[in-house]
Amino acid sequence: QVQLVESGGGLVPPGGSLRLSCAASGFTFSNVSMSWFRQAPGKERELVAIISKTSAFRNYGDSVKGRFTISRDNAKNTVYLQMTSLKPQDTAVYYCYALESWGHGTQVTVSS
Description:
Layout: E1 3-7, E2 10-12, E3 18-25, E4 34-39, E5 46-51, E6 58-60, E7 68-73, E8 78-83, E9 92-98, E10 101-102, E11 106-110
Parallel strand pairs: 2-11
Antiparallel strand pairs: 1-3, 3-8, 4-5, 4-9, 5-6, 7-8, 9-10, 9-11
């Protein structure tokens, strides 16, 4: 059974940074691409970043390019999202996604 557990969200002022983590279990983590999505109130869920199983390929949504970095540690079955230069429009629930399964999400609020 695929389990994805996000952590690391919180309240941060504009321009600040946060690192999200997603601990995965129930599948062979190193064989699977991993993604982060986010959903803001009243908006559709959107892709934030994706990373291939070996980290050789990474791609980002246009709104976060140059500010966010996705990474993974296959030894720890964990994927990360380092977020810098945060903006109020980054406020959303951030979800980890793999194998057609979603985590419960972690809230990120960017506000002064």
